[in-house]
Every structure is written in structure tokens, then in C-alpha cells.
Amino acid sequence: MTRYEETTEWLFSQVPMFQNIGAGAYKPGLDNVLRLSEAFGNPHQRVKTVHVGGTNGKGSTSSMLASVFQLNFMKTGLFTSPHLVDFRERIRVDGEMIPEDEVVAFIDRYRAMNLPIEPSFFELTTVMALDWFARCGVDIAVMEVGLGGRLDSTNIITPLVSVITNISLDHTALLGHTEAEIAREKAGIIKPGIPVVIGRADGDVRRVFADKASAEGAPIDFAQDNVLYDAVETGSDGSKLVYRGTPYGSFACPLTADCQRENVNTVLHALRLMPFTVYPGSVVRGMEFVLERTGLTGRWTTLCRSPHLVCDTGHNPGGWEWLGPQLARIAADGPLSMVIGFVSDKDIRGILRMMPRDARYYFTSPSVKRGLPAADLAAVAADCGLHGKVYDSVGAACRAALADAPAHGTVFAGGSTFVVADLLSALRQ
Length: 429
Description:
Elements: H1 3-14, H2 18-21, H3 31-39, E1 49-53, H4 58-71, E2 76-79, E3 91-93, E4 96-97, H5 100-113, H6 121-136, E5 140-144, E6 161-164, H7 172-175, H8 179-186, E7 196-198, H9 203-216, E8 220-222, E9 231-234, E10 241-246, E11 249-253, H10 260-272, H11 280-288, H12 290-294, E12 301-305, E13 308-311, H13 317-333, E14 336-340, H14 348-352, E15 360-363, H15 374-383, E16 388-390, H16 394-404, E17 410-414, H17 417-428
Parallel strand pairs: 1-5, 1-6, 2-5, 6-7, 7-8, 13-17, 14-15, 14-17, 15-16
Antiparallel strand pairs: 2-3, 3-4, 9-10, 10-11, 12-13
């Protein structure tokens, strides 16, 4: 086992990690992370940042912004979560993952300090990212919120611009049982005098954001009120969406899920608020090459063409409000197979009701401790009118689905971020 493997094994096993144990790993409050950052020279005070929160679309929005900044002649950090295959996916500079030896060196430094605190996995990871960005001398870093906002570890930063994509019900045991309650937690990243862009918010949620921004003297821009493109067209081979008539000209973007139109509009609004020049050519190229520039994957990502294998990390009701109709259109046009798995703390009945009835189902479980057993999932799905077979791994389920599907069919894999992670790992083997 290499030093890097030993270090990440320690991180995953010895430090409370949300991916494995859920709420037990969540340490609300900023005292721990502030003390940890102080021990490393307060890198959060030495890096210019953009802060991105919300329920869905954070990763896509963060990646689009980072890609544009890179092509805007700026050395750019990007912090996202969770990772899919390699821990280092979380921390990138100009698209390159943090080197393995830098992960080892950071954890060695931390362990040698013997600090009188017990930080969580995410607290350590947040400070590791900020420390790396500061030492690399980035011009700007895009920081994605982990969970919530007000008490999230990333909220020690004071950004140039804050972005909140949208609000839906997720992590209700930690953040609140209504969208308005969750919005109050997400609104915690709104800072005094710092401009904030809200992608989509209605009713009570909109009022929460407006009131918080007013109290903080923060200029607020609701992106949904002004769509900054005239038209969206599907590219000739279906692999990109073309946005016409934006303030930066027309561009193509390889993120083709229905929800991305909203995320693109949010990004365009955020770019207009940056306190530096954003060149039109940087936006055009940044949007077109977002996947190559950031390593973003799992967002309606095509993995093979015949049959069409696509995966998506959408894992809550808000995400499935977009995925459900998109998959229903596919099912209406041809054979659809669904490889589905969940973690145990999700409202799966609400999500299952959004899935197409006229599809073949392959039920499985992601290989994390929180994974919902496939047999339990199949039983709940049957109550919702969805029927299929049970498989003991994501890889086995996907292989069976691909073997059964005709060449012109579609196989979708998702339900959980960790289903996508397992699928990508299986494909690499």
C-alpha cells in the first residue's frame, strides 16, 4: 500500500465521514474549522473565492465558473464534493487534481500538530483545499458548499460573489423539514455587502433570501427573473446544447440535462457580478470545454453509445423533478432500462413516483455503509408500481442491463451519487 493509499484509508476510516455514516459525521459550527485553518496560517484569508451553495446543481455551476475563470487567464482553484473515484477529485488547480504527495504531507502536518480538536473529514478536506490553493497562488477559487451553508465548513470564507442555485428537500434531518427552513440554512452564505445570485426561488423561499440579503446589505439578483439567452438548441449530434444570444455571444455546452439550462443562466448572472473583466471568448471556450477543464462527470454523462449508457448523480426530489420528465421522454421513444440504487436516508418513495413506469428496472445498492439494501429498495419500488430484478452490485446490475438492452436502447444508472461512483469504478476495472 502506498503512502497516499494509507493516508486516504486513514481519512476514510478514522475521521467521521458523511459518505459512510451520514448525520453522525456532520459537525455543525465553524469553531473547529476556524481553529484548524488558523493552525495552517489562515489560508481562507489569503485566497479570493466564489462561494456556491444550493440543493442541486452546485457541482455543475461551480465547474462552469471554474472553467470560464481558467480561460479568462486566471489560475483557478476548484473545491467540490463528494468525489466519485479518487479523493483528489475534490481539490483541483486549473483542472489538475492535488498531487498525492501533497495530500500525504497535509495529513502528516495535521497529525504532528496534536491539536485539541477532532475535525470531521469535511473540515480537514476544506482546509486542505484552501491551504493548497494559497500555496499555489491561485487568482481565484470556486468553493462548493458541502451541506447547508450557515454552519458548513466552507463558510469561513468571505467571497467576491455568493451563488445559491435552488432549494428542495434534502438532508431534512439536519437542515429543516420545509423548503423555507432549508433556505434559511443555505442563506447563511450571504455575507454583508457581498453580491449574491439566486438561481431559482419562489414563494417563502424567495422571501427568505430577499430578507437575508436586505439584512446583510447584500445586492441580490434572482436569475430566474431574467433569462440571459434567447434560445437553446440541441447540437447536431446531440452531445451539446447551443445557447444563442447571451451577453457573451453564442456558445455550446456539453452539459445536456434539462436542469443545466437553469444552471447556465445562473452562471451567466454570476459572471456579470465579478469585480474583474470576464472576456466573451473566455465564456465561450470555458462553457464548451467545461468537462476537459474541470474533470466534471456524472451529470447526464454518456458512457457508451450502443446501447446508450448514461449516468447522473441526481439523488433527491429536486433533482428528479428534472430527471423524471427527461427519462419519461426517452421511455416514450424507445426501450429504457433503469439501474437504480439509493442510500438509506433519502425519501425514496417520493423519488420512485417520479420514475417512468414503462421501463425495465435493475435494483442494486451502492457500496457505502449507508447503502439501502437492494431487496428493500425493490420492495418499496413495487409499492410504487415499479418492478424488476435485484443485483448485489452496481457493476452486476449494469452489466445485466446492457446485456438485455437492444443496440438502440438506453440504460440509465443513478439514484445516488454513490451508484455513479461504483459504476465509474467498475468501468475502470
